[in-house]
Amino acid sequence: MHTLKKFFELPFFTKKKYIISIWLIIAIGSSIKQYLTRNPDNYNNYSIYKNVFFHTINKISLYATYPNEYFDHNHYGPIFSLIIAPFAVLPDWLGMTIWSLFNAVVLIYAINKLPLKQEQINLVLWIGAHELLTTILSYQFNPIMTAIIILSYVFIKEKKDFWAAMLIMLGTFVKLYGIVGLAFFFFSKDKIKFIGSLVFWGIVFFILPMLISSPEYILQTYVEWYERLVVKNSENASLISMQDISFMGMFRRILHNPELSNLPFLLFGLVLFSLPYLKISCYKKQKFQLLLLSSVLLFTVIFSSGSESPTYIIAFLGVAIWFVIQERPRSTRVLFLFIFALILTSFSPSDIIPKFLRENYIIPYALKALPCVLIWFSVIYEMIFFKQTEEEIKIVHK
């Protein structure tokens, strides 16, 4: 054990520059590897993304099927056309690589803004590295969405309500997930300014795509977006879908009942999620705030029927934050849940887990969600019974 501890104290594991280098290598290497396969299935998501821009400027439906361009549908809002524009106009190999790098850099920045010690931040980065690989291999937007949620909290804490509101509205207009940033509303010191900023940015992001298309086209696009999301939600409930890796998805698949409604699960989740807000005296406690951030990141994924394997970088950063703020020595419960999550959630898509287990149990029953569900319950429990006198986490990192 002493030798193992010494091994993980080597500079490679403890120096910030090394772990950041690993993240950047993952982003660049994975992106290039997928492109070089010349298999369109491996970069289908990027094909969808870049065509959001081209379809917007050409004023054609963002949510129709285009089998000559990609399979599946676009599920992002029209504002995404402006986010992807700088990448879409580049040659694919370059656009894909810079897109992946951009995702990694934005999330690295967000994690480094957390009010944690540098050693804790390094550990969060190490814990999240494999999930980064999983999502980058699919050219997903999820790293940026994770950063949006984290920075929404950070900016509110730093009294930058205007910019926190900007991120919350941006995330909402892109993928709806961003709305969860409102969970940090009660940490705001100027709630009137915060609300006003939300309204301002909501109007800005609603109108902005009209600059590269037309008002009539964008208004119709918002209607189509809503209709597509309704259809997608029903499609996700299929027992053979690669999505719905969620709390309710586990029950649907274990019970073989695709008609099982989301509503009772969501109501149950919202009640539990809301209970810690009764601890008003703890709002200023930094550990309490970070537990709430962890809860938000986990809740966003485990209660979404649209969650798929690459989405779990959002939830797993919640796991990482929860783990690093635990008091040492960490309890048996904490260590068990963390190791369980590493194995079943993070490593389950990899060859570390036997193919037989992955294809016959983990995927069919959406078991990737199970450790995150259990950790979310643990987070809620810790917040409900949070002691007002609990020692603060000192901010030594800026």
Write the layout of secondary structure elements.
Elements: H1 2-8, H2 11-14, H3 16-36, H4 44-57, H5 80-88, H6 92-112, H7 118-136, H8 142-157, H9 161-175, H10 191-207, H11 215-236, H12 247-254, H13 263-274, H14 286-302, H15 312-324, H16 332-346, H17 355-362, H18 370-384
Helix pairs in contact: 3-6, 3-7, 4-5, 5-6, 6-7, 6-8, 7-15, 8-9, 8-15, 9-10, 14-15, 14-18, 15-16, 15-18, 16-18
What would you note in describing this structure?
The protein is globular, with a radius of gyration of 21 Å. The chain is 64% helix and 0% strand. The chain is mainly alpha-helical and 398 residues long. α3 packs parallel to α7 (118-136), α4 packs across α5 (80-88) and α5 packs across α6. It has helices at 2-8, 11-14, 16-36, 44-57, 80-88, 92-112, 118-136, 142-157, 161-175, 191-207, 215-236, 247-254, 263-274, 286-302, 312-324, 332-346, 355-362, 370-384. It contains 18 helices and no strands.
Structural class: mainly alpha
Strand content: under 5%
The N- to C-terminal Cα distance equals: 33 Å
Number of strands: 0
Uncertain runs with pLDDT below 50, 5 residues or more?
393-398
Instruction: Spell out the helices and strands N to C.
Output: HHHHHHHHHHHHHHHHHH
Shape: globular
Percentage of residues assigned to helices:
55-70%
Mean pLDDT: 92
Q: Radius of gyration, Cα only, in angstroms? A: 21 Å
Major β-sheet profile: none
In DSSP terms (H or I, runs of 4 or more residues), the helix count works out at: 18
